[in-house]
Amino acid sequence: MNAITNYIDVHQQIKESNSQFLKRLPRFTIDLIKIIIKQDEINRILFAYADYEGVDFLPKVVSELNIKVDIEGLHNLPDNGRCFFVANHPFGFADGLILTNTIAQKYGDFRAIGNEVFTLIPHLRPIVAAVNVFGTNPRKYLLELEKVFASHLPITHFPAGLVSRAKGCRIEDRDWQKSFVTKAIEHRRDVVPVFFYGRNSRLFYVIYIGRKILGIKANLELVLLPREIFNKRNKPIRVRIGKPISYDTFNNNKTHFEWAQYVKQQVNNLKN
Fold first, then answer.
1. Which candidate in 106, 168, 226, 256 could, as Cys together with 178 as Cys, close a disulfide (CB 3.0–4.6 Å)?
2. How far is CA 146 from CA 46, 140, 143, in A?
3. Helices 58-65 & 94-107 angle (0-180, nearest 10)
4. CA distance 60 to 229
5. Contact, 189 vs 247, CB < 8 A?
6. Which residue segments constitute the domains of the chain, with CATH numbers given?
7. Which of 112, 22, 65 shows the shortest CA–CA distance to 226?
8. What are the E-state strand segments in the chain?
């Protein structure tokens, strides 16, 4: 039997990182992180579907996890898929998987604006337009993004950039970034709002609140995100798709940032 390929190798990635903090972590801490993120299980799934990539890989993962997707408003997906499909970001991975798989089933090829970490997974590289969500994007990322914006491909995007966090008694996205509004106007792309019902585990938010209270800047809760997708195994996830918003809507009555928050509110309104 062939050995399972380590597509994700936390120890190696820490060794190659620029973070002196991570490089000082003791080996037992790294081993604990591997367990928390379920590194072996992730690599098992990636190895099992090594012959699939892009739009062919996505449904395999949905099936593997037996996520029961309940989508309302599929009729609101326009015939012309040259749009931004934007959504709230409550889960981290599961919402990205479902959004991209839904768009792939409707339109075929597409591009997902996503964290550069996804390029570590060869199965996803053909469909990911990488961004650095924690810092400055290198020139090659920006050039590739411009090609994607100018293309005829559908684009999926989580404009918050980061996963929803606890805010008072609610779980919600931070302010949405304005870039999708700017590019929707520039490239005449309508915007299709998508809302995901649900949240991550209590532990995720407890760690977030705890490290905020303690003044810890490092996003410690992000370590749990790979584990969160396995928490969705065999469970239903409800999604609602709204009517497209024409790029002509984004006039000079508001700034692009204000229009981004307007779209965010339209997404949140889908909950009701």
1. 256
2. 30, 10, 5
3. 130
4. 14
5. yes
6. 1-48 (no CATH), 53-269 (3.40.1130.10)
7. 65
8. 68-72, 83-87, 111-115, 128-131, 155-157, 165-167, 170-172, 190-196, 236-241
Q: Which amino acid is at 252?
A: N
- The predicted model gives 211-223 an average pLDDT of 86
Name the CA radius of gyration of the chain, rounded. 19
Q: Are 29 and 100 in contact (CB under 8 A)?
A: no
CB 272 within 8 A of CB 102: no
- Separation between Cα atoms, residue 175 and residue 255, nearest integer Å: 14
Contact 237, 69 (CB under 8 A): yes
**Sign of the C-alpha dihedral computed for residues 243, 77, 182 and 117 taken in this order:** positive
* Phi, psi of 76, deg, nearest 5: -80, -10
Bridge partners, residue 171, by sequence: 166
What are 159's two structure tokens? 């404009």
